[in-house]
Amino acid sequence: MKPRTVGDAGGGAAKSAQMTFADNRLALQLFGSHHQNLARIEQKLDVTVHARGNEVTITGAPDAVDGTRRVLEGLYARLEQGHAVGREEVDAVLRMVTAPGGNISDAELTIHTRNRYISPRSTVQAEYIRAIDRFELVFGEGPAGTGKTYLAVAKAVERLVNGDVDRIILSRPAVEAGEQLGFLPGDMREKVDPYLRPLYDALYDMLPATQVVKRLENGEIEVAPLAFMRGRTLANAFVILDEAQNTTAVQMKMFLTRLGENSSMVITGDLSQVDLPTGVRSGMREAMETLADVKGVTFVKFSHVDVVRHPLVSEIVRAYDAAEHRRKQGARYEKPGGGKADPDPGADA
Question: What is the predicted pLDDT for the residue at 345?
């Protein structure tokens, strides 16, 4: 049942609105322990929210009051559907409301896996989920912590559980992230597993451990380094290539041409963190440029705004982006005899 809202224009720049929630138990969950959820909303939207019983009164600038009302309605709807509401969910709905073009209905998109329900936590995440549903080949590019890989694995698990695909193929290039690891001990699987650990972590988050082990053993889920994909045709599968910024152009073309019938492919990566040798151009960058006008392919760009890890991660990404922008604007190469020349626009290093 939708909360009842009573508006009071009040004149001037301020506005008040009163909301009544039909279910007292859900209202308490909505407000949070010691009203911490309401305090979070007050802080982010610069409003005052007074709660009494199952009613709240919101006071502030008209746009902020309207935004607060939409946030509370969205969170209450989640509770009515049986989902939990904590700080992460509050922050997610706040992102939906405050982002340019944000739509509260984006938060209602849900991916169903055996262990949990997963909803987008930013408008770009919602766009990404819709893109995976609509297109056979999706590129998700942006900084770490934006959910690119996690959401792709969630969609893959959902389709496998629903019987829409026969298997999941998860792959990564085995490229050292600026570290010299030397010769790793163990057999082939033990050597490559450290590179693939994030993919395993996502799987165990979405499926019971016994199911992950069983599906890995019977081939329904395969986690393998990129080099193992050569010569294969991946049909009736949901295929994910993670850390794709570290592929070469030849590797990327090889991987893309593995796509078989009734399959979908998601390519994820962060072009600001290329670990290829200096002078080697990222295959992901080249593929995004080459396939820009190909029908059936789409591209989703994430930014620091979409980071859903610790709030400080978003600020770290934003600071590095700003520093990189300043470097590109001001630190041009000096020409012989003075003057400045543009750096090589094709370099990824």
Answer: 43
Lookup: tokens for 127: 């766009």
Average pLDDT over residues 86-100: 80
Q: Compute how many other C-beta atoms are within 10 angstroms of the C-beta atom of residue 16.
A: 17
Dist. CA 165–CA 167, nearest whole Å: 6
Residue with tokens 């390519």: 267
DSSP string across 115-131 = S-EE--SSHHHHHHHHH
- Residue 3 contacts residue 21 (beta carbons within 8 Å): yes
CA-wise closest residue to 224 among 176, 183, 188: 188
Short-list 274, 233, 277, CA closest to 256 = 233
For β-strands 264-269 and 297-301, DSSP reports them as: unpaired
Using DSSP's 3-state secondary structure scheme, residue 327 falls into helix
- Tell me the angle at which helices 87-98 and 123-134 cross, rounded to the nearest 10 degrees: 80
CB atoms within 10 A of CB 80: 14
Give the residue carrying structure tokens 């991987």: 255
CA 60, 63, 66, 70 torsion-angle sign:
negative
Would you state the pLDDT for residue 179?
A: 39
